[in-house]
Amino acid sequence: MRGHEVRKLTALEDTHWWYAERRHLLARSIAGRPPGRALDIGAAGGGNTRVLQSAGWEVAALEYGEEGALVGRSRGLEVVRGDATALPVADSSLDLVVAYDVLEHIVDHDAAVRQVRRVLRPDGVFQIAVPADPRLWSEHDVAVDHVRRYTRTTLTDLLSRSGFVVDDLWSWNVLLRPTVALRRRASSGSDLEEMPRPVNAALRVVVALERHLPVKSLPGVSLFATAHPVA
Q1: Residues 153, 112: contact at Cβ < 8 Å?
Q2: Of 42, 108, 145, 199, which has the most beta carbons under 10 Å away?
Q3: Per-residue DSSP letters for 192-210?
């Protein structure tokens, strides 16, 4: 992701409805799991890294670009500079790897997922979030350097051929998909931007409703997955 987009993301992620709900989902996913060693790939401002830290995990933030690493360190994170396709991490040394909105930026995403498989312990967990549905491709994707958007099939196939078993796969941001699709049809760049507090609060309520509604199998804006290494 370009440096100025990383800065925009960092400025927004503490309060923006999208990132706030993703942090909730991450916190819920690790609830009850004994903390261990974790890696947050593409950590940017470190919102997800701090979720793991607060739950007792020993976590490092991985950033490819200099700008992202500087941002993370300015927020007190332990940041490792490195390429997701050649992780600077020992074999079978991690209990958890998180890659939220990362794989879509990587041309050779197979190499990146194989690297995650290499560094995870046999009982480790890989948590993924990616943008869904090529039909939603827009200038937003271009502005934030996406290479692709995923379907359930393409994400499952990627994980399977790279040595993972998919434990759970679900759609997210289902209720707001029509609004996002309409807005991005007319977009001319990234939609990472600050919005009025009442609008932000209203969108946070809408997306939080999905925690309680049976919508995870419907088309959404993102896909989330949890996977473990093949024995």
Answers
A1: no
A2: 42
A3: -----HHHHHHHHHHHHHT
Beta-carbon contacts of 149 under 8 Å, excluding residues fewer than 6 positions away, are 104, 130, 131, 132, 133, 134, 136, 137, 141
pLDDT by 10-residue block (mean), the chain, 231 residues? 61 85 96 96 90 96 84 84 96 98 97 98 98 94 93 98 97 95 79 85 96 97 98 83
How far apart, in whole angstroms, are the C-alpha atoms of residue 74 and residue 58? 19
Structure tokens at 170: 């679900």
Report the C-alpha gap between 152 and 184 in whole angstroms: 21
Determine the Cα–Cα distance for residues 104 and 217; give it in Å rounded to an integer: 21
Dihedral sign from CA coordinates of 144, 148, 150, 154: negative
Residues 6+ apart with CB under 8 A from 11: 45, 194
Containing 112, the helix (H) or strand (E) segment is helix 109-119
Residue 60: enclosing H or E segment and its boundaries? strand 58-63
Q: Which pLDDT belongs to residue 5?
A: 60
